[in-house]
């Protein structure tokens, strides 16, 4: 896949993602919030891939959070990284499933969750896109409390990744070390 790296206004991109999420959640009783750090600025990235990944996390949050729940999209700059977190107060994901959900076609408890639609491909594609941008996705979740998916992308993506062939990754994305702080507390669950 050829990366189209350009200067992107992150605020605009995330506001656009939240607008789409609001439309998706229109018939639902969910509270959606956007929390953007003051110094987000512009980053050099492929906005198509980033937008796709953020929208996938938001649409999952909407799908797996019952009415009355809260979803927060938050972003901040951390040195050479941008952290984008999608938090929900939904059903949560068991620790044993947390790595597998990034595999293609994997769905937790497929029989009941399949009623919510989807093929189990969204996270595999989102994590592959974020990897192509030079970043990764990390998950913190507690069953019955909620989930936080934190996506990290470099402020300046290296376009030399452009020639990597695209295939849906069935591997778990590499976890980041402990050098990136968790997101500041929001309405959703705190990470564990
Ligand atoms: P799909 O949503 O099409 O099933 P995904 O790859 O996006 O596929 O997600 C894989 C599985 O991970 C989902 O079927 C669901 O079991 C679980 N999952 C993803 N996001 C969440 C979330 N925010 N809360 C609870 N479970 C989730």
Outline the fold blueprint.
Elements: E1 6-9, H1 10-24, E2 31-36, E3 42-45, H2 47-63, E4 70-78, E5 81-88, H3 110-113, H4 122-132, E6 136-142, E7 146-154
This protein binds adenosine-5'-diphosphate.
Adenosine-5'-diphosphate is lined by residues 56, 60-61, 64, 88, 90-91, 93, 101, 106-108, 113, 118-124, 147.
What can you tell me about this protein's structure?
The protein is α+β, with helices and mostly antiparallel strands. The protein contains four helices and seven strands, in the order βαββαββααββ. The strands form two sheets. The chain has a five-stranded mixed β-sheet with strand order 2-4-5-7-6, with helices on one face. The longest helix has 17 residues, at 47-63. The protein starts with 5 loop residues before the first strand and ends in a 38-residue tail after the last strand. Adenosine-5'-diphosphate is lined by residues 56, 60-61, 64, 88, 90-91, 93, 101, 106-108, 113, 118-124, 147.
| N-end to C-end Cα span | 35 Å
Side by side, the strands of the main sheet go: 2-4-5-7-6
List each distinct ligand once.
adenosine-5'-diphosphate
Which class do the helix and strand fractions yield? alpha+beta
Low-confidence segments, ≥5 residues, pLDDT <50?
A: 167-192
Key traits:
7 strands, 5-stranded mixed β-sheet, two-stranded antiparallel sheet, 4 helices, binds adenosine-5'-diphosphate, globular, alpha+beta, 192 residues, 24% helix
